[in-house]
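hey so u asked for the seq, here:
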Amino acid sequence: MKIITVIGSGLIGRSWAMLFVSGGYNVKIYDNQPGQSAKAITEIKKQLVELEEAHMLRGELSAAQQLALLSSYDDLSQALDGAFFVQECVFEQLEVKQSIFHDMERFVGKDVILSSSTSCLVPSKVFSKVQNRSRCLVSHPVNPPYYVKLVELVPHPETAAAVMDTTHALMTKVGQAPVLLKKEIDGFALNRVQAAIIAESWRLVQDGVISVKDIDLVMSEGLGMRYAFIGPMETMHLNAPKGLEDYMSRYSENITRMLSSFGPVPDFCGEAAKSVINEMYELIPCDQQHLAARQERRDQFLMRLAKLKKD
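ran it, structure tokens below
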């Protein structure tokens, strides 16, 4: 049975491990902090049982069968032994990621695929200390990966096409929805689109056009209703009698006018930002109790939405 090694046992590492065992792969979890990878398996066991009880467990195997595919390691060479694919999930710090890939290259064969879970660091920087960069890529998941299936596959300039194809097939097999970026770019695709939404939402609140509560409703009860099933391109294509070209002939002038009125990148951290932040805190206080409750609510809704889309 094929082996996948997950480097790092935090939230994202545990999520990747759960996804890979759902596809029937043997998964070795490594953490350089002694005992942490074993603790991760204990946490995963709890989650798998809960998912099985809620009839939301992914894959064809039972929770017990999936759990049997997991093993924990404190030694990097042992964790990498036999793996055909390595998914790194350590801290989002460039030097840390460069160091771990430099270390692991000593213990793996030339055909082993090395994948990073970085959310914004470009592959050319992450893998700069790797000798054989043709087998390297970024596989950027969306939090929480178990319910949000998108994975961005971002190549290094030297990544072999076969590596992208193999990773795409792997992600598809475990039930994710992989998208292929043709080249690396700062922020990849998802975070660039998200940043554009954040910037204009922030500007509208900061400029006194709309409240924090209502701009969130613009997305959750407006755009988000469609975007849960179709993207912006298809939305435009379906919103005109004759499709996308017809849509642009009708609305491109208005879109261009609006875009030209957008202001500069907002100040997210200075004095001007405080009013926006305070308004958010009034809606949802930033203490752990309130945030944890809203995070649980988010995950429950995502679970139901994932089930709806599956059905």
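Residues 288-310 form the longest helix (23 residues). DSSP finds 13 helices and eight strands in the chain.
lmk if thats what u needed
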